[in-house]
From TrEMBL:
This is D-alanyl-D-alanine carboxypeptidase/D-alanyl-D-alanine-endopeptidase. It comes from the Bacteria. InterPro entries: Beta-lactam/transpept-like, Peptidase_S13, TAT_signal. It is an enzyme of class 3 (hydrolase). It comes from Micromonospora parva. Its EC number is 3.4.16.4. The gene is dacB.
Amino acid sequence: MHRRHFPRALALLALVATAATAAAPGATAESPTPATTQLRATIDTILADSRLSGAQASVVVVDTSTGQTLYDRNGDRRLIPASNTKLLTSTAALELLGPGHRFTTDVRASGKRRAGLLSGNLYLHGGGDPTMLAADYDALAAQVAADGVRVVTGNLVADDTRYDSTRLGPDWTWDDEPYYYAAPVSALTVAPDTDYDAGTVIVHAAPADRASAPPVVTTTPATGYVRVDNRAETVSSGETSISIEREHGGNTVVVTGQIALGDEPASDWVTVWEPTGYAADVFRTALHRHGVRVLGRTVLGQPTPETADPVARHDSMSLGELMTPFLKLSNNGHAEVLTKEIGRVLSGSGTWTAGLTAISEYVADTGMDTGKLRQRDGSGLSRRNLVPATEFVDLLSAVRAEPWFATWYAALPIAGQPERFVGGTLRSRMAGTPAAGNVHAKTGSLTGVSGLSGYVTSADGRLLAFSILLNNYLTASVKSLEDQIAVTLAGFREGQTSTARVAAPAVPETPRTPEGVECAWVKPITC
């Protein structure tokens, strides 16, 4: 898809920009005002940092009220955007599915029913909900029991056919497979907590009551679907060094290392090899807890007959509400589910291909030139995603006209706000600066890749859209450079200049975390 005609609102915006430029002598790109000249010099100074030596940088800043480009460094250069890709996926989802869209998980019965006996199969019908908790499956089981079902002579069938059976993105690296940020995608899944990292289980290792004994290992939620190979040891004293990792191709989780007596349990999020079976196991256990016996086996991946009778139902939170955990915590699984859901709703095909095609058509309608970018997944985990900064800024400028914009803008991480579901991945960044509580932006992190794209209100009240993409650096992190640019933009005021030497603004250092981590809370590897 290539660039399409701008919507009427954008055409009017362009006319306003032209008029504003004509009315403000010296405000053109060829002849910028002194304040804009100084802004550009300051950003140039930041990008001259030695950490970017040999790296690539693409930075664009636009005044959304006039359309004036205040800064452009390699704006048309295609770079890996990491989780900035979620800007495309989230806006397309809100437009194409609607903020009120919900995922439905239901239970249906086929066969004859008499006096609590179902002579047939019980179907757990997945609707793609990435927020399903063990408690939600328990509530479904309670509904089944309340409906009078006591014994099922047939099978428990887990129907995940709303989406295809391709679980992992085609470009995802194999060594990411065990980690929660690369969880397999299924229309039936389980999230272990209200971060909603669907398709994962939290494994806890607590010290035993004596030295030399293995730690006590449990999971959240409790499930027999994951097998634990406990090779760790409880020690009388010393540093706790527990490693928890799932073996490739199965659901054996190996626990190694040591934990000291009296220490707090060590915990880690681990992906589950087949989330459909995981969901079925949690649900089957819940049925048993509520007095419903299934005599047959668990069968995965068969469709529910159209004639099956509804027995129980659970509806997810609305898509508008889901935007908060999705964007604040940069949840990769949510992005991939939304991509497949878009494909399913618009074309009847719950695949990455169908979803990405629809996303491309939507962002082209906003004014992005999709002939100059490539999107390979919904989350940005693929290193084959390539997007120029100027295209991100085009999208950021255009979606301000959408009726759901306020919901989406509020769901973006907000700099320097310590609450997890407010500040999100920016919660410990830019605190105590003019950018704190001001910058709403999407972060992005892969090894050697960092990005920050979103909005900042300047000191004279103008909403600026910006995109900062940094690639191919060798240092551990360049996020402080992104922060310096954002703080500079927050302090920018047209018509005000200083004779002081151009220098990067001072910003508080983000607490050091392992390479690739953009979250400010403790969670393994990345987010």
